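does this look right to u?? adenosine-5'-triphosphate version
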Amino acid sequence: MKKFYRSFTYALKGIKELYKSQRNFRIQTNIGLLVMIMAFLLDLPGNEIMWLSFATMIVLVMEGLNTTIEKIMDFINPDYNPVVGIIKDISAAMVLIAAVFSVVIGIVIFGNAIFGLSSRYGIIIAIIFLASIKLFSREKGGKGSGKDD
Ligand SMILES: Nc1ncnc2c1ncn2[C@@H]1O[C@H](COP(=O)(O)OP(=O)(O)OP(=O)(O)O)[C@@H](O)[C@H]1O
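got this back:
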């Protein structure tokens, strides 16, 4: 039990470090808090609260992972290196994907609860995002870079 308590305090230290050093983590925490307060005030059903909690937490988890990867890369290779750049970019991309997922969940749930909107608006955002990935990642050959590992 003592060991569990110690691990918990280390984890809290990590959260404190993330909150103090990462602006994005602070913003995401505040948005998450707002989302949860709104869910409470709107008295949303349990399954919607679960989706909103999942969406909020996954963004915070991905931001933590992104920060960890950035710190590891800066530690093992403080100089400019294109591979480090690619690793950091991909790491940031994962946060963006989680954020878009959260926006889709937010639009579906709050859109319906506040404005009576159809869930289709959430689907539209997801389609636009996924289509944008294809559109902006197109190479001349039309099938990505052809450099898959
Ligand atoms: N050592 C490096 N070599 C090559 N490119 C890098 C390097 N460090 C950063 N970059 C590029 O700059 C971008 C931003 O990196 P950085 O580590 O500053 O992330 P950040 O999101 O600004 O971090 P922070 O959370 O500290 O503000 C990376 O996604 C990458 O494209």
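The chain has one domain: 23-136. idk if thats expected tbh
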